[in-house]
Write a structure and sequence with these properties.
The chain is mainly α. Among the domains are: 102 residues, Endonuclease Iii, domain 2; 75 residues, Endonuclease III, domain 1. The chain contains 12 helices and no strands. The longest helix is centred in the N-terminal third of the chain and has 18 residues. The radius of gyration is 20 Å and the shape is elongated. Bound molecules: iron/sulfur cluster (SF4).
Length: 268
């Protein structure tokens, strides 16, 4: 099962040379930092053209990040669920520093349910929002112990009943551990990258995770959903970074309406 993400993908991101804007595209009027409220003036794209563009993007992501998966270290659905809850507002690297000790002390949901709240707070303090996360972890562990016979639920409806678990976390556990493509993880990277790619048309900002997920589910084949989210996260971390995306290195540039609109110039 998936564990730490493979490091080879970065090397596979090839330098892209001088992508040409599609015929008829007008110049961008204002670069955006995170795809929040793009003012790009683009010709209207038909649904068919957008679908075809999405498939080309999918193919390029497949070439660049064939083994994309979560960077959160885990060996069981319990560990993945705990790590994903801890990853809210925190880097995966920081979570990976905390979880080895945490999983030694609380190896399963039953042990976690009986944890002393103050000790648990201290153990996860460096991940931020530790009081709320402690409540979520204890609530989740108690419900798993009392209502799911110590097993991590395998359906969206059941996972969403657990304290601290919303669709992003449920999608991650269902897709990454159980291999069920129930939805698409939309985190800060997926939101930003897909808004820049103009693939989530009903969302107004990159924070509108619900609409972004719905739009992506309509346009991408279901069997790709889990991998796609991990690939977009990796792309967002390595290339389409928040402050200044590396469009000159981006293999998606020919199909990205936002390419080179951030004050970065094309290679000649
Ligand atoms: Fe992001 Fe690539 Fe588009 Fe640049 S070309 S905005 S790096 S997806």
């Amino acid at each position: 099962m998936p564990g730490k993400s493979k490091g080879g993908a970065k090397e596979k991101v090839k330098r892209h040379v001088s992508p040409r804007a599609p015929a008829g595209r007008k110049a961008a009027t204002a670069p955006t930092r995170a795809g929040k409220s793009s003012k790009l003036k683009l010709p209207r794209e038909t649904a068919d053209r957008r679908a075809a563009r999405a498939l080309r993007i999918l193919a390029r992501l497949r070439e660049c990040y064939p083994d994309a998966t979560t960077a959160l270290h885990h060996r069981s659905p319990y560990e993945l669920l705990v790590a994903t809850i801890l990853s809210a507002q925190c880097t995966d690297e920081r979570v990976n520093m905390v979880t080895p000790n945490l999983f030694r002390r609380y190896p399963d949901a039953r042990a976690l349910a009986e944890a002393d709240p103050a000790e648990l707070e201290a153990a996860i303090r460096s991940t931020g929002f530790f009081r709320n996360k402690t409540k979520s972890l204890l609530g989740m562990a108690c419900m798993v112990r009392d209502e799911f016979s110590d097993g991590i639920p395998q359906t969206m409806d059941e996972l969403l009943r657990l304290p601290g678990v919303a669709r992003k976390t449920a999608n991650c556990v269902l897709g990454t551990w159980y291999g069920k493509n129930e939805g698409i993880v939309v985190d800060t990277h997926v939101g930003r990258v897909t808004m820049r790619l103009k693939l989530a048309l009903s969302a107004r900002t990159d924070k509108d995770a619900e609409r972004i997920e719905r739009d992506l589910m309509e346009i991408f084949p279901r069997e790709t959903w889990t991998w796609l989210a991990h690939a977009l996260i990796e792309h967002g971390r390595k290339v389409c970074i928040a402050r200044k995306p590396k469009c000159e290195l981006c293999p998606l540039a020919p199909d990205c309406p936002s390419a080179f609109t951030f004050g970065n110039a094309k290679s000649e």
